[in-house]
Each structure stands twice: as structure tokens, then as C-alpha cells.
Design brief:
This protein is of the alpha/beta class. It has helices spanning about 10-20, 65-80, 120-135, 160-170, 195-205, 235-240, 260, 270-315, 320-385, 390-395; strands at about 25-40, 40-50, 55-65, 90-100, 105-115, 150-155, 180-185, 215-220, 245-250, 265, 400, 405, 415-420, 425-430. The chain folds into three domains: about 10-120, Nucleic acid-binding proteins (OB fold (Dihydrolipoamide Acetyltransferase, E2P), Beta Barrel), CATH 2.40.50; about 125-285, Rossmann fold, CATH 3.40.50; about 390-430, no CATH class. The strands form three sheets. A five-stranded mixed β-barrel has the order 1-2-3-5-4. It has a five-stranded parallel β-sheet with strand order 7-6-8-9-10. Strands 12-11-13-14 form a four-stranded antiparallel β-sheet, with no helix packed on it.
Length: about 425
Amino acid sequence: MNEQSLTLLELNQRIASLMTVPSTQNVWITAELSDVAVRGGHCYMELLQKNPETGATLAKARGVIWASVYSRLAANFFESTGQRFASGLKVMVRASATMHPVYGMSLVISAVNPEYTMGDLLRRRREILAQLQKEGILELNRQLEWTEVPLRIAVISARGAAGYGDFINQLYGNPLCLNFKTHLFEAVMQGDQTPVTIISALNEIDKQRDEWDCVVIIRGGGATSDLVAFENYELAANIAQFPLPVIVGIGHERDITVLDYVANKRVKTPTAAAEWLIEQGNEALKYLHSMGNAILQKVSDRIAGCKEQLTYYEALLPKLPLQAIERENARLRGDMLSLAQIGTRRIAPELARLDHTMKSIASAADVVLRRRGDRLNSLQEMLNALSPEATLRRGYSITRVDGKAVTDASQISSGTEIETTLANGTIISVKK
């Protein structure tokens, strides 16, 4: 080859000379901002053009606002729109194409049209959130109650992703030695297949929901344009209605997607998701420790009180028997005194009543005896009057034969010896 070759610097210089023409200088363009960062007073960014139907990136260019104009442009833009330069904004800027021999091509921005504010990304996000709110599902997942210590974690991420590795290392390397259980439900975390694969993973988790306490959706950082797949209505609706609490840790701290508005918990990075879960365990352990300390304090106080009471009783113990005996003696003396008083009060009337009763009995006995004596005397007199002796004294006699009284003379045969008893004496005779 006889053609003379160019150095890379010479080529870049030629490109720069071709680019620096009126048609590429101070022209108004529309683009979406991505990866906005301020360093050293300068504002660096990426300018994107996307397919309005699919969201796929059609064009990309580096942009810069030098510090000499950035503070003024940013202040005017914020005053007019209430917005700061941030990823996701769609803006209209006046830019000039430049070609740096080392850093390549970039667009130097010198003005911003504040009338052209929000980009397609943020408008789409607002539309999704409005639709979810209208359907009444926006707050559902955020209202779910957490278990006291979520230890069973269903993870949705890409296998081998750095963010997933950071999450697992942080979780299983926790200094509290919390026993976490995790399982990876794989999904594509970048590109058009992201929503479909994440929804599929959610469906798999739902089939075994009793085995898990929560779901963690994680992805490491990257360009903001790489996160457009998460701005999806179907995916947001599935997460909003999922029956387990969902943690979303996608990108860097500055990255926000529609999922952050519907998930139960939003954290800035995968590592932060692990840290949050560990902190829940730490809070539970602190509570258990505080309860244990409270129980220990209560038990210690009770034991101290019992020891104090025991010491008090030990000091009293030698005196207690004597005191008890003295109390019983005093009670016994009192009982004896009371008994004596009661005896005096109860026995004296009874003795008086008994004495009266005895006198009454003696008097009654005398009366009865007199009556009985008089009756006996009367009976004696009647007996005496009716006795055989009295009859004999009145002139009668008793005739007996063989010792038996005879009342009929015909009963005595001739020659029978008869004994006749008179009042004074007996006569023996024989019947003729």
C-alpha cells in the first residue's frame, strides 16, 4: 500500500474540522437526559433519543454544560419548571458539536428551553401510577404487614450478577449470625424481556408463598437508560398486588423507577436490601435482649426483696417462739379469766335455780308423803275394820275342818272334828 496512513490524532482533527460547521453549531435539539452528574462545577450527561413505542434507544451522545454557564442555566431551569437537571428528563437544549482528540465527540450545551420539560420516561411513569391509583392497587403491597423477622427470602435477580453477589455476601456474612434462607428465582434484568421474566418469577414464588416471608428484586447499577425496562405497567401491577411484601433495590441511590412507588420497601442498592433485612433481625434481637434484661431485673429485684425479707425473719426467728408462747399464755390467762367470769355469771343463777328446785322438790315430797301417809292410814283403818280379827271381835266365829273354813253345815258329816275360832280362843268339838 502506497497510501500514507493517518494517526488517530490526525483523524480526530479532521473529524473535528468537518464537525465545526454552522449546521452543527448552536442548534436546538430534543433529547432525554441520562446519567446526569455534576463534577467540578461542570454538568455531564448522556443525551438519548428513544423509540416512543418500544422505548429502545435510537441515538446517544455525550453532553456537557461547562461550569461557566451551568449554574445560571440550572437556576433558570429550576425557577421555570421546579425541576433540576436529572436523569429521565426530556429537554430541548441548544448545543454545539465538538470533537476532542482524546475524549471524542460531545455536545456542548449553552442554553435550555424551559418550556420543554418532562421527558417521555417521567410522563409514562406518571401515567402508570395514575392508572394503578385509579384501579385501587397502588398502595396494596405497601400496606402488607411484615413478619417480625423476615428470614426466608425469595430473590429475583440475574444469576452471576454483581448486585446479586453483593446481596448474598452481605446477607450471609452478617455479624449477628442470623440464619437466612434464600432462593434465586432467575430473571433477565435488562432489556425487553425484563418485565416478562420478572412476572414469571413472581408467579413461581406465589405458588409457594407459604415458604417465604418476602420478595427481593435486585439489580446492580448501570446507565439510567438501562433501567427503562422497569418502567412497565404490567410489572408494576403485579408487584402492587403481590401477596408478600416486596423489596426493590435497583441501580444506584439516584435511580428511581415506577417499581419504587408500588413496592413495600425501596432501598438504594442490592447491598442496602441485605442491610435492611439484617437490621430487622437486629431490631428483633435488641427487643429480645431488652425483654431478657427486663425479666432479669424483675427476677433480681424479687430475689433481693426475698433475701431482705429472709434476713428480717432470721433476725426475728429466735424471738418468735418466746413471743408466741407469751402471746398464747396471755391468751390463755384471758380465756381463764373470761371462763371464770362466765362461770360465775352462768353457774350462780343455776345454783340458785337448783337450790330453789331442791326446796320445791322437798316441799312437794313432804306433801306427797303426807298424802300417801294419810291414804295408808285410811286404808289401814279400812283394813283393820274389814279384817277377820275385827269380825271376830264383833262376835262372829270361824269354823274350820281340817284347817279349811266351812260355810255350809251340810258339808260336815257326823263325827267330824270341828275347830271354831273366836275373838279370844279356839273351841274343838265333834258334830253329832
